[in-house]
């Protein structure tokens, strides 16, 4: 009887230990995913709470921080009511794809608020957010930019052609990191080495963000629009470094330290650029749980034009003007030629006509 009771107690303790282990894993996963607000104007306030933010509400939260109302209600109440007369000039979202091996260590940056993330949508839809801004301010030119690494190409989606000059390949980015004003030269990289593909990927993504900031700073005309601007950056190099070296490796620690230092400097740069009238958020997600940022199509992706889907041809924007010029020019020339031909056909070859004078002159000379 005593042996049976001891076995039951052992099974009970084992079940409790398994339950505690399961809860620790769940808590660690929840802490690995969070939305960190590193800066916001005084009239945009966030309420501290433990309720998780659904991933489907992230675009709506950003929209509300910009003072734009949406048709969809937000179930999350971490964002307080903003000012009715002021709104931020820009919103910056940095999405960092981490790894489950990193544990529950939070991002070491100065912040105004931290909120855990709840996965109810497999991806954060940035495209819908940009479409909302374009539809609301269609008569203006808002600065909308989505940048990240896609198929080993540094891809920048924006309507401004000035960003096309930025490095877009690994080789060009490796050369850019050798400059004196690069991320590699201005930040402490520790054991990270740009000669390794995984390390180069992370430093290249950070360098791309810095080059975007420098480009906007050198082109102040892009900031004259009264519409709010939106910047979305994706950092996936941390995940590759953890896969390559492990979550407890010195490289992983140095990578997290580099990202934290860069986020702090990036926040200060955007604050100076927009005179503190900007909201900066950092979204950390775990790819193992199925959360991904929006997958954008690279400008250098494989061409699908050979697929027959019965689409009309692309025409130049000046096609209507050129078409009307050619059309009316041909109509005028036809009328003129017809009038001249009709007049010459019915001309009277009398004494007063030019034909008579020319012929009579020739006869007199003869």
Task: Outline the structure in words.
With 366 residues, this protein is α/β, with parallel strands linked by helices. Helices cover 42% and strands 15% of the residues. It is built from 10 helices and 10 strands. It has helices at 2-32, 58-65, 126-136, 170-176, 183-186, 197-218, 237-245, 250-273, 319-345, 354-365; strands at 34-39, 53-54, 90-97, 113-118, 123-124, 144-150, 153-158, 229-235, 278-285, 292-293. The strands form 2 sheets. The chain has an 8-stranded mixed β-sheet, with helices on both faces. Strands 5-10 form a two-stranded parallel sheet. The protein is elongated, with a radius of gyration of 33 Å. The protein starts with a helix and ends with a helix. The model is unreliable at 1-31 and 295-307 (pLDDT under 50).
Please write out the topology:
Blueprint: H1 2-32, E1 34-39, E2 53-54, H2 58-65, E3 90-97, E4 113-118, E5 123-124, H3 126-136, E6 144-150, E7 153-158, H4 170-176, H5 183-186, H6 197-218, E8 229-235, H7 237-245, H8 250-273, E9 278-285, E10 292-293, H9 319-345, H10 354-365
Parallel strand pairs: 2-4, 3-8, 3-9, 5-10, 6-8
Antiparallel strand pairs: 1-4, 1-9, 6-7
Helix pairs in contact: 2-3, 4-6, 6-7, 6-8, 7-8
Helix share bin: 40-55%
Q: What are the low-pLDDT stretches, counting only 5+ consecutive residues below 50? A: 1-31, 295-307
Euclidean distance between termini CA atoms: 152 Å
Strand neighbour order, sheet with most strands: 2-4-1-9-3-8-6-7
Topology pattern, helix = H, strand = E: HEEHEEEHEEHHHEHHEEHH
Shape: elongated
Number of strands: 10
What's the main sheet like? Answer: 8 strands, mixed
Beta-strand percentage range: 5-15%
Structural class: alpha/beta
> What is the C-alpha radius of gyration, as a whole number of Å?
33 Å
């Amino acid at each position: 009887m005593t042996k049976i009771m001891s076995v039951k107690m052992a099974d009970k303790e084992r079940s409790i230990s398994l339950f505690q282990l399961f809860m620790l894993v769940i808590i660690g996963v929840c802490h690995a995913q969070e939305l960190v607000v590193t800066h916001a104007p005084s009239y945009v306030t966030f309420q501290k709470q433990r309720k998780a933010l659904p991933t489907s509400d992230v675009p709506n939260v950003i929209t509300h921080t910009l003072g734009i109302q949406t048709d969809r209600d937000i179930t999350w109440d971490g964002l307080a009511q903003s000012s009715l007369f002021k709104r931020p000039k820009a919103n910056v979202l940095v999405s960092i794809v981490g790894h489950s091996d990193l544990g529950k260590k939070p991002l070491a940056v100065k912040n105004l608020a931290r909120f855990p993330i709840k996965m109810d949508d497999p991806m954060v839809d940035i495209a819908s957010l940009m479409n909302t801004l374009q539809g609301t301010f269609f008569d203006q030119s808002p600065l909308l930019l989505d940048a990240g690494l896609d198929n080993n190409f540094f891809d920048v989606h924006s309507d401004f052609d000035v960003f096309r000059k930025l490095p877009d390949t690994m080789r060009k980015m490796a050369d850019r990191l050798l400059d004196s004003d690069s991320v590699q030269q201005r930040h402490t990289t520790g054991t990270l080495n740009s000669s390794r593909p995984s390390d180069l990927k992370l430093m290249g993504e950070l360098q791309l963000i810095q080059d975007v900031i420098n480009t906007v700073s050198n082109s102040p005309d892009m900031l004259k629009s009264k519409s709010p601007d939106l910047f979305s950056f994706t950092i996936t190099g941390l995940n590759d470094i953890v896969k390559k070296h492990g979550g407890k490796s010195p490289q992983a620690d140095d990578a997290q330290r580099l990202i934290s230092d860069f986020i702090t400097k990036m926040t200060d740069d955007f604050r100076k650029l927009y005179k503190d009238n900007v909201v900066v958020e950092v979204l950390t997600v775990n790819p193992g749980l199925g959360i991904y940022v929006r997958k954008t199509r690279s400008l250098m992706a494989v061409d699908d034009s050979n697929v027959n889907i019965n689409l009309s041809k692309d025409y130049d924007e000046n096609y209507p003007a050129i078409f009307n010029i050619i059309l009316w020019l041909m109509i005028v020339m036809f009328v003129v030629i017809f009038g001249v031909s009709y007049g010459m056909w019915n001309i009277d070859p009398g004494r007063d006509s030019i034909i008579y004078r020319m012929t009579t002159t020739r006869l007199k000379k003869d």
